[in-house]
Every structure is written in C-alpha cells, then in structure tokens.
C-alpha cells in the first residue's frame, strides 16, 4: 500500500476535529467553577462566604455540578469523540462508544483483581494520584485519563462504521445495528484490556519522565509549546498539542485547567510567585497573544488600508478583534493572515511564543488559554490581592507586545505590499477569511487552479456540500446553485456557506440550494470543473475577465460619477415591471426570496405576459439557457434581479421569448421578456414574478408600496 500524505493529513485533521467535540463544553464549566470559587472566597466576600451561610451553601452546590465534565472527562471523551468519527447514526455510535469503554474498564478491573502483581500494579491500594489507578464510573481501573478513552473511542467509531450495516439472518434480527457493534466490541476489548495491562504501566512511567522534562525545561519549554500550538493550527493539528496539556496528563494529573481550579483558593492566599506555586501553568499562557497581540495586528491592518477604505475595514476588524480579545476565538483574523500573507502568521506564532515566554520569565502562571473573560474570572479577580504586581506587569508587557505587533505587522505589510483588507484594488473584495476558505485555497493550489472569488466560492461550496463523492447532480438557475446530494448529513451548516459569500442555503432533504447571486454562472463553471478534477482554463480565465472588464470601459468617469453622487442623486422610483397584483417579497412561496436571501424587493402576481424595465438601466445578466430571469443595473447603482415564476428554470426556455440583449441600455417601460402563462401553468409552476434588489442593504432608505393592483410601466412600486 502506497503512502498517501494528503490522506494521512486529512485523517489527522478529522481526528483533531473529533477530539474537539467534547472540548466545547469546557469553557462554560471552567468559568462556572471559577465563579463559584470566587463567590465562596472569604477574602473577597468576607463573612458572607463563610461555611454554614446560605450564600456559601449555594455556591458549594453550584461548584459540585460545575466539576462534572472535569471529574468525568474520560467518559465524556468516550461518548463524544465517536460523534465526530461516525459516518452515520452518530447518537447510536455515542451509546456504543460508552458501552464498549465500560466493558474495556471492567475487563481491566477483572484482570488486575486476579493478577495485578504480575503486571506490576498494586491493585489493593485506593485509586488516586500517583497510584496508577483511577475510578471510572465506580470501576477501579488503570489511570489512562482521556488518552485511553480517546483510543477506545476511536476503535468504537471504527467498529460502528464497519459493522453497523452488517446483514445477518432474520432470525437474529435483534442483534442488528448497535447490538452487533457492541457484541463485536465486547470480543475486541478482551484482548485489548489484556494488552493495556501489559503496556500501560511503562507508558505511564514514560509520561512521568516527559512531565519532568517539561517542568524543568522552563522558559524554552513554554516558548516551544506556544509556538507549536499556534503554528499547527492551520493544519488542524493544534489539538494534539494543547489537549494533553490543558485537559490531559502531559504536565499534571487531570490537566492544567482542572488542577488550577482545584487549587485556586490555595493560590489566592499565597504571596509566593505564581510560577513557583504552579510552574505547569506556564503552558497555559498561550491565550495572551489573543488578548494583547491580535489587537496590534488588527490596528496595523487598519492603518495600512487605503484611507477611503478604512471605515469599511474597521467594520470588519472591530467585531473580529473584540471576539478574539473577550472569548479567545481568533479564526477570522488568524485565517486572514494565512490566506493573504502566510508570512504574517509565522511572525504571529513567533511573537505569541515570545510573549508567553516573557510572561513566564516574570513569574506569571495560571490559566490564560482563552480570552479576557478567562483572565478576569480564573486569574485576576480571585488572585489579585496577593499577586497584583505580577498582573500589573503582565498587562504592561502585554500592551508592549501590542505595540510590537503593530510595528512589525505594519512594516511587513507596507514593505512587502501584502494584500491585507483595505489594500486591494478598487474592484477587489475586502473581507476577513475563514478556515474553510483557507483550506479551499490550499486545495485549489494543489489542483493548479488560479485564484479568484468565484473559483474560491466554488471550492468552499463543494467542500461544504460533502465533496465530489456526495454530489449526485448539479444545476443552476439565475441565482442558485441547485445540488442533489447523496447524504444530506454531510452538508455543512448554513453559516459555512454564508461566511464564504453565499446569501443563504435552502435544504429540502437531498435537494440543496446554495443562494449564490448573479455570479452563479461563473461559480457553476468552476464547480463543474472541480467535480471533474480538472485544472480548467475557463476557471482561470473567467475571473480576470470579470476584474478587467470594468477597466476597459471609461474608468475615470465612472469613478468620478461614484464620488459625485449624493443621496438626492440616488433617489429614484421603480415602476411595475409587469401588470398584476403587487405583493411583498416576504409573501413569495419560496424560502430564498421570502427570507430576503437575495435582497429585499416585491413580487407581482401577473395578469399580463410581458416583463418591462422598471427604470432606466443596463441589462447586466440574462439567463440564456432558460430566459426566466434577467438582471439590471440601475443608474443609481442598484442591482435588480427579475425572476419569472418559481422553478421555471426547469422549462429550459420553453414559453419564454427574449425581447432585449446583454448589455443593452433600456428605458423604463421597455419590454424585456415575454412569457407564456399557460405554458407555465401547464408545467405545474407558479408564474409569480419577483423583483429583488440584490444590494438592497446599501439602500436603507428604500420604501415599498403597499399591496395593490399595478400596471406595467405606470404604477410606482419602489422608491429609493
């Protein structure tokens, strides 16, 4: 069997993602533990927090519940990790994983009860730190923590995917599905338990030696850990670094977070250096760059943007920066580095590691893996009384690194002319990028496909739809990529599509509609080429044409026109585009239109058969294969889509007659398309005609007339 590097990386990324499934719970429970400790601290709340008071009793009970995920972490991983690996029936896979993990531990308990001394384990002693034993669901077993649970969970998920659909005789039907998977798991766990009784004690000794090495490696260890955690994030492998440290046994029993919270009151009443009290906490300083470093990077990108674009760039960067600082969620900013200028991300990893090492050098330790909320709740508030000077130094050094980030990033962006947001050409798009877009870009580079907004969207949409193997059929209409998928469960959440530039997603079983907009023909072309695994010339040539086309027209006057237009100049009236009964777009029996995914607008239940221009405009798009939709660009910059009927794309142009042409300059009332209402009705489709202003968000002053009968080319329906 040949070694496939890409396949291995994909599986590692998938493994890292599966491990993250239970981790999403830790933030809430960690903050709750910290708050309960703070509120029961007599140093902060005096006699109110003394034992025996109702206040203390309440927070004591809250704290016991908040320890749930930390005290039962192996079980949590045994249940949650299979969810990330299961290809189907994730809930049943989680149940199977729990049962198989329990069987595994019961087998180990039985073996050690009879022959513990043979394996070098004193099974007669009580389970606890340093004994090599732990209590898992009232089972005294080997202390393998989350590592053992993850290993068994992976086996459980494999057995589920391999045996869940196994056909067995009807008379054994009761053993189908989960029962069969668990039965196979039962047989597999017996030799697995015996194997672990042999190998785990030496592994445990090795972990202890590794812990000692890290504890004694000091500042260098902290630097190397933080750098590794940041630099592996793009590949999705950073989970392998921080999980064993923060939640596992890499440097202390139970992980840094649990240990820190358990001893928070002890640290809060000692004036000794935090680093001396808890040296392992240096490995949880990696969140410092999120709080102090990224604001400097964001500020550099803002000041490097073109002056006329700074306001727009600020609207992108401010929310992303606040999210990073408060919550520690850094994807929008960090993946923008990766997308437009990977060198900035490397510099970020180096600076983040240097910041952590510097803070550790001054004596800082604690749990600073998240954002500012973690800083306050788990560190500053409960410990400030005895460690105020350390925290003041931390803030001073952190702000110093904010300045360093700003200076370094600004120099690199200007010196190398890096295309960060706000520095693109006038026709370019200013945005922050997501992990999905970064992965799509790397995939396109492997295939030799040139960059471009539409090509990138196609790759992201393909990935989010489950990849080529999950696509059964692809078509498109004027605004939507219509896809039939094999497995709807493989389709990503709507936010993944909208973050990549889609207006929305409509799911109806296996039928998926990605609301792309008027650029859907270009996106469809790239999508088809990617499906075939081609390196399409069309995909590479389409994007430059769309960027260069405006330049071929008289660019200078166009620019002047944009500058000179004020709100009064943009004011105009749109008249009825077909005769009939006017209704609001929210009443259209189609989710994509009624939910205004394509923009706000109106619709008309037609009594005539000809669509006319609602105002003076340029014909910007014609759905030539079906003639059921046309796009117009109005003189005030508004972009209008007129869509005749619902699902009429399937008529392939039958019953439609085009009365204009691409790029034609039309006047209000000029005929655009004639349609046969009887043919539409005979085909079983609704003939309602919709007009959506696709960039309606740029026109908050837009007003729509009330429902009423209208006459084409005469009755006003929309006022800007």
Descriptive notes:
This protein has 720 residues and is an alpha+beta fold. Among the domains are: 1-72, no CATH class; 259-416, no CATH class; 435-532, Glucose permease domain IIB (Gyrase A, domain 2, 2-Layer Sandwich), CATH 3.30.1360.60; 573-719, Glucose Permease (Domain IIA) (Distorted Sandwich), CATH 2.70.70. 53% of the residues lie in helices and 12% in strands. It contains 27 helices and 20 strands. It has an eight-stranded antiparallel sheet, with no helix packed on it. A hairpin with a 2-residue loop joins strand 5 (504-508) and strand 6. Helix 6 packs parallel to helix 8 (145-163), helix 8 crosses helix 9 and helix 19 packs across helix 20 (453-464). The longest helix is centred in the first third of the chain and has 54 residues, at 178-231. The protein is globular and about 90 Å long. The chain starts with a helix and ends with a strand. 42% of the residues are buried.
């Amino acid at each position: 069997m040949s070694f496939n590097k890409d396949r291995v990386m994909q599986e590692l990324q998938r493994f890292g993602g599966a491990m993250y499934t239970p981790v999403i719970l830790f933030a809430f429970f960690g903050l709750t533990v910290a708050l309960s400790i703070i509120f029961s601290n007599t140093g902060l709340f005096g006699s109110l927090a003394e034992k025996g008071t109702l206040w203390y009793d309440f927070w004591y009970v809250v704290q016991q519940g908040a320890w749930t995920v930390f005290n039962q972490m192996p079980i949590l991983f045994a249940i949650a990790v299979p969810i990330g690996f299961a290809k189907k029936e994730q809930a049943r896979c989680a149940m199977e994983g729990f049962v198989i993990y329990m069987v595994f531990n019961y087998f180990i308990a039985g073996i050690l009860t009879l022959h513990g001394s043979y394996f070098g384990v004193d099974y007669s002693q009580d389970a606890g730190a340093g004994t090599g034993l732990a209590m898992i669901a009232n089972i005294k077993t080997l202390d393998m923590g989350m590592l053992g649970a993850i290993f068994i969970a992976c086996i459980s998920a494999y057995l589920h995917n391999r045996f869940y659909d196994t056909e067995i005789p009807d008379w054994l039907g009761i053993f189908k599905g989960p029962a069969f998977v668990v039965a196979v798991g039962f047989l597999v766990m017996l030799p697995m338990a015996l194997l672990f009784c042999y190998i785990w004690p030496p592994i445990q000794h090795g972990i202890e030696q590794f812990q000692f090495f890290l504890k004694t490696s000091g500042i260098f260890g902290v630097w190397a850990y933080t750098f590794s955690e940041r630099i592996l994030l793009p590949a999705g492998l950073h989970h392998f670094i921080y999980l064993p440290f923060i939640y596992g046994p890499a440097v202390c029993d139970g992980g840094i977070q649990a240990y820190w919270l358990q001893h928070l009151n002890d640290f809060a009443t000692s004036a000794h250096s935090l680093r001396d009290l808890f040296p392992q906490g240096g490995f949880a300083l990696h969140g410092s760059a999120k709080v102090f470093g990224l604001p400097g990077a964001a500020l550099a990108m803002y000041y490097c943007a073109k002056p006329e674009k700074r306001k727009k760039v600020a609207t992108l960067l401010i929310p992303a920066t606040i999210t990073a600082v408060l919550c520690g969620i850094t994807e929008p900013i960090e993946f923008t580095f990766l997308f437009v200028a990977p060198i900035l991300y490397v510099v970020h990893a180096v600076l983040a590691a240097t910041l952590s090492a510097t803070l550790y050098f001054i004596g800082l330790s604690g749990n600073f893996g998240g954002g500012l909320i973690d800083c306050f709740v788990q560190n500053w508030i409960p410990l400030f009384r005895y460690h105020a000077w350390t925290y003041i130094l931390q803030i001073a050094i952190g702000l110093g690194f904010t300045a360093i980030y700003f200076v370094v990033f600004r120099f690199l962006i200007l010196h190398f002319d890096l295309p960060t947001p706000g520095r693109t050409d006038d026709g370019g798009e200013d945005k922050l990028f997501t992990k999905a877009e970064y992965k799509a870009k790397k995939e396109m580079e492997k295939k030799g496909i040139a960059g471009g907004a539409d090509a990138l969207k196609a790759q992201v949409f393909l990935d989010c739809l489950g990849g080529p193997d999950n696509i059964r059929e692809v078509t498109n209409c004027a605004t939507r990529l219509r896809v039939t998928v094999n497995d709807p469960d493989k389709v990503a959440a709507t936010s993944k599509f909208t973050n990549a530039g889609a207006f929305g997603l409509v799911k109806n079983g296996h039928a998926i509609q990605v609301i792309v907009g008027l650029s859907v023909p270009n996106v469809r072309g790239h999508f088809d080429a990617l499906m075939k695994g081609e390196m399409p010339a069309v995909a590479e040539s389409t994007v430059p044409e769309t960027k260069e086309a405006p330049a071929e027209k008289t660019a200078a006057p166009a620019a002047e026109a944009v500058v000179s237009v004020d709100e009064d100049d943009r004011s105009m009236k749109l008249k009825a585009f077909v005769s009939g009964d006017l209704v609001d777009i929210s009443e259209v029996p189609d989710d994509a239109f009624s939910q205004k995914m394509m923009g706000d607008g109106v619709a008309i239940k037609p009594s005539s058969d000809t669509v006319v221009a609602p105002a003076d405009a340029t014909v910007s798009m014609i759905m030539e294969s079906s003639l059921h939709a046309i796009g117009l660009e109005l003189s005030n910059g508004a972009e209008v889509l007129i869509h005749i009927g619902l699902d009429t794309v399937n008529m392939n142009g039958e019953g439609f007659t085009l009365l204009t042409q691409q790029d034609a300059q039309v006047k209000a009332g000029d005929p655009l398309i004639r349609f046969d209402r009887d043919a539409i009705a005979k085909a079983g489709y609704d003939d309602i005609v919709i007009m959506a202003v696709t960039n309606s968000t740029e026109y908050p002053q837009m007003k729509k007339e009330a429902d009423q009968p209208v006459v084409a080319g005469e009755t006003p329906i929309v006022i800007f």
